[in-house]
């Protein structure tokens, strides 16, 4: 894979989805040691005063996960992921990591939480969407994951496809990116660099080369999938 390096700030984006029907969410707040690992002292103080601490804990979790993905694109490589190092303020919809500040967009329903993190230079209203595994699976004709992997992905894409949700969310973000760029989807690939699980951010390739005009991010949890796209003003089909 060609190393795309850091992406322009206008294309730095991250998304995370939490399935509110997952048993880990339905059980309530995690154990104290988990809360202490994930939250900073100021975040924990605000959580203690929250009217809905379970929802707010998972929103913090999603914001930190989304921010990690955006920072990875900004830096060109994943940083050390210590959750508490990402300082979230849900009131101002901001998250700070060192010298980097990102804006948050939060979409919460009874069934799922979606958080999008973006740089200040990115679009004020980033393109994002969410869907269920079942709904997207129906949309591709009910193929099993092996047939889906072989029939819908290039050789460069396949090694990052780890299961049905992984496959479906990649198809979704690729389709979204094609629409945003105004190009045929067959010209696009969603490619991950080599590395351990969780440290292989997806990059969009156009005509076989990484595109610096667009940043993409994907997430799946339980039955929910989410994807986001951030396009620079200079992007467009050719």
Automatic annotation (TrEMBL):
InterPro entries documented for this protein: 4-PPantetheinyl_Trfase_dom, 4-PPantetheinyl_Trfase_dom_sf
Molecular functions per Gene Ontology: transferase activity
Stored Gene3D superfamilies: 4'-phosphopantetheinyl transferase domain
4'-phosphopantetheinyl transferase domain sequence ranges: 12-96
Coiled-coil annotated spans: none
Domain of life of the native organism: Bacteria
Keywords: Transferase
Name of this protein: 4'-phosphopantetheinyl transferase superfamily protein
Organism: Gaopeijia maritima
Lineage start: Bacteria, Pseudomonadati, Gemmatimonadota, Longimicrobiia, Gaopeijiales
């Amino acid at each position: 894979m060609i190393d795309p390096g850091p992406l322009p700030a206008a294309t730095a984006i991250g998304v995370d989805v939490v399935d509110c029907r997952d048993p880990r969410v339905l059980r309530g707040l995690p154990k104290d040691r988990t809360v202490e690992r994930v939250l900073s002292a100021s975040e924990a103080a605000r959580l203690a005063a929250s009217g809905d601490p379970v929802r707010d804990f998972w929103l913090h979790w999603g914001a930190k996960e989304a921010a990690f993905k955006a920072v990875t694109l900004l830096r060109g490589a994943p940083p050390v992921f210590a959750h508490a190092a990402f300082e979230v303020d849900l009131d101002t919809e901001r998250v700070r990591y060192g010298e980097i500040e990102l804006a948050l967009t939060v979409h919460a329903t009874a069934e799922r939480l979606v958080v999008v993190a973006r740089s200040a230079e990115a679009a004020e209203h980033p393109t994002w969407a969410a869907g269920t595994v079942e709904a997207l699976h129906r949309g591709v004709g009910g193929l099993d994951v092996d047939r889906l992997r072989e029939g819908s992905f290039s050789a460069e894409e396949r090694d990052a496809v780890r299961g049905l949700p992984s496959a479906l969310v990649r198809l979704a973000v690729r389709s979204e990116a094609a629409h945003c760029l105004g190009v045929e989807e067959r010209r696009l690939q969603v490619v991950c660099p080599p590395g351990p699980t969780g440290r292989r951010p997806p990059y969009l390739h156009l005509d076989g080369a990484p595109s610096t005009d667009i940043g993409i991010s994907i997430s799946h949890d339980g039955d929910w999938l989410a994807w986001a796209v951030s396009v620079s003003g200079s992007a467009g089909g050719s």
